[in-house]
Structures are given as structure tokens and as C-alpha cells.
Amino acid sequence: INWLLVLFLLSAMIGEAFMSQGLENNYGGVMVLFSIVFLSGILLLRPVLIRTKFNNEFKDVVIPIIIGFGIVYALTTIYAIAIEFIPDLIFYSVTILLFIVYIACCFYIAFVNKHPKNTFLFIVGTCYSLVVVGAFAYELVLPYSVVIGGVNLLEIIVQFYFVLYIAYIAEVAEEKNWII
Q1: Contact 34, 11 (CB under 8 A)
Q2: How many Å apart are CA 5 and CA 37, to the nearest integer?
Q3: What is the 3-state secondary structure (H, E, C) of the chain?
Q4: 2 φ, ψ (degrees, to nearest 5)
Q5: Are the beta carbons of 41 and 99 closer than 8 angstroms?
Q6: Is the dihedral of CA 146, 152, 154, 157 positive or negative?
Q7: How does 70-88 read in b/e, with b if 16+ C-beta sit within 10 Å?
Q8: Radius of gyration from C-alpha coordinates of the chain
Q9: Torsion angle of alpha carbons 145, 96, 77, 18, nearest 10°?
Q10: How many CB atoms lie within 10 A of CB 133?
Q11: Rounded to an integer, what is the distance from CA 91 to the centroid of its chain?
Q12: pLDDT in tens, the chain (180 residues)
């Protein structure tokens, strides 16, 4: 049993349950639980991160930078809108920092490591970005059931593909020149 993966999934599940009862009422718990999710996700990706070698190719540099700017722009916009509603900036800052590192790890591996299963991490990074943006949008400006329904669907997709990726992580971590 991969206990770190169990911690990742349980923290995500409990965090989502708290989030469904309202971020205002459970802010500290949600931030702590999602900090655990992102930290455990980073630690789970560590074997692949260690063996992934950066190539100085155009697509390995430019595409992640463009995606990174997009994510930072979205998070900065959310921060600017939400700053007056955030009760504790320390919890928020730690969670967002861990989120950015986790998403950066997902995209870094997806673009630099050539294993075909790394497509799963691209899906995870993209969907988790949309989950965070959608969850804050739901809480602050778009309190529609279709928004939270989409966020929950994306969360299920994230967890499915991340678990699937972790199931193949030993194979992905092998040092080979995968051709895709």
C-alpha cells in the first residue's frame, strides 16, 4: 500500500467535503488539507522528477513558460478579486505556493520526460488548475450549481489520472529515451 497516495486521496476527499459545506466556514481546514494534497503529490512525483533531465529545446522551454504565465495570471487575478474575502493570508499563501509547485512539477514532467504516460500528468495539471480557479470563482462570483458540478467532475478526473500515473511511476522513472 502506498500510504502517501492514501494520504493524498483522503486529504483531497475530506478537503472537498469541507469545501462543499462552504469555504467561509471551513477555510483553515480546507487550506491545510489541500496543502497536504499538493505536498504529498509533489513527494509522489519525486522519483520521476529526480530522473527527468531538462532539454534545452524550444518546446521544452517556451510552452511551459506560456502555460506558467497563464496559471500565474489566473491565480493573480483570483488573488486580486479574493483578497478582501481571504481570512488568513498565511494559509492561503502556503497552499497556493504548494499548488504552483505541484502544477509546475506536473507540467515539467509532462513536457520534459518523454514517456507516453506523462500525458496523464498534463491532464492532471490542466484539470487541477481549472479546479482551483473554478472553486474560487464559485465561492466568490459564480455561485451556480453548474460551476461546482464542473469543478467536482474535474476533481474526479484529476484523482483518476493521478492514481493511474502513480500506478505506472516505476516504469516512467526508468531512464530510457522514450520516443513519442
Answers
A1: yes
A2: 9
A3: CCHHHHHHHHHHHHHHHHHHCCCCCCHHHHHHHHHHHHHHHHHHHHHHHHHCCCCCCHHHHHHHHHHHHHHHHHHHHHHHHHCCCCCCHHHHHHHHHHHHHHHHHHHHHHHHCCCHHHHHHHHHHHHHHHHHHHHHHHHHCCCCHHHHHHHHHHHHHHHHHHHHHHHCHHHHHCCCCCCC
A4: -90, 95
A5: no
A6: negative
A7: ebeebbeebeeebeeebee
A8: 16
A9: 20
A10: 16
A11: 17
A12: 899 999 999 999 999 889 888 777 888 899 999 999 999 999 999 999 988 877 777 666 777 778 778 777 877 777 777 777 778 788 888 998 899 899 989 988 888 888 889 999 999 999 998 898 888 888 878 888 899 899 999 999 999 999 999 999 988 887 666 555
- Whether the CB-CB separation of 88 and 27 falls below 8 Å is answered with yes
What is the pTM (predicted TM-score) of this model?
Answer: 0.86
Amino acid at 156: I
Q: Residue 142: CB partners within 8 Å, gap ≥ 6?
A: none
User: Residue 81 has which C-alpha cell?
Assistant: 478579486
